[in-house]
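Sample intake sheet
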Amino acid sequence: MSVTEFELEVLGRIADDYEAIHTIRGDMERDLGRAVSEEEVASALIALVAVGYVDAFSYDSTSSKYQRVPVETRSVSELWFFINQVGRVRI
C-alpha cells in the first residue's frame, strides 16, 4: 500500500474534520504555494479510499448528519471525506 507525498498531504487535511475537494484544494494551494487542481485532489482522495485510509460521505440535510457512502455512488466533487482508523494509524 504505497501512497504518494501528495496523498499523505491530503490525508492530513481530512484528519480533523469532514472536508470537500474545494476546501482541501484551497488550503493546499495556500500552504504549498502552488496551483492545485480539483482533479489532483480528487485522484488523491480516490486513491486514499482505495487503500482503505479514508471514507466518503454524503451530507444529509434532513438529519444534519454525514452518511458514509461508497465513493462510486456519486461524483467525487459532491462528496465529503474523513480519515478512518486505518488512516489514523498511517499518519
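Comment: DSSP finds four helices and four strands in the chain. The mean pLDDT is 94.
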